[in-house]
Amino acid sequence: MRRILVTATLGLALAAAPAAAQDDRAVRPGMSEADVRARWGEPLAVRRINDWTYLFYESGMEQTYRFHDIVMLQGGQVVDAIVRMPGRTYLGQSSSPPERAPEFTPPRTQPAAAGQTGTVTGVRVTP
User: Fold this and answer.
1) Tens digits of per-residue pLDDT, 71-117?
2) What CATH class has 2-82?
């Protein structure tokens, strides 16, 4: 009985080891840019726009998917990632999971017809 218990415990520990090792490289929501770099290394490119930071990583799948892996941060924290490279994991809810086929996303409003202008708000003009 003791031998079975030891064998079962060892088997569970070995089964959990690869998952724990992969978790060490996983990116999750709320991580900082430094945390992401520590897990995935230096990105190919970094783009910053206002409060947003986009980290682009080589995926090895560029010929198939036509884009790099991307980690998106808002306010210095990970909020989304699009990951295709085997061995990389995003533990949050991705806006583009691997099984989702790319598709056109139409704009929510129709563009103004030529010569028409819409109402602009939030702008202060100082003469």
Assistant:
1) 999 999 999 998 888 888 899 888 887 777 766 767 776 655 555 56
2) alpha beta
- End-to-end CA, the chain: 88
pTM for the full model?
0.61
Q: Which one-letter amino acid corresponds to residue 32?
A: S
Handedness of CA 13, 18, 19, 24 (dihedral sign): positive
Cβ–Cβ under 8 Å, residues 92 and 78? yes
For CA atoms 28, 34, 36, 38, the dihedral sign is negative
Residue 122 CA to its chain's centroid (Å): 31
| Dist CA 5 CA 14 (whole Å) | 14
Closest CA to 59 of 48, 45, 73: 45
Please classify residue 56 by burial: count the beta carbons closer than 10 Å to its beta carbon, then call 0-12 exposed, 13-18 middle and 19+ buried. Answer: middle
Query: Rounded to whole angstroms, how far apart are CA atoms 49 and 61?
Result: 26
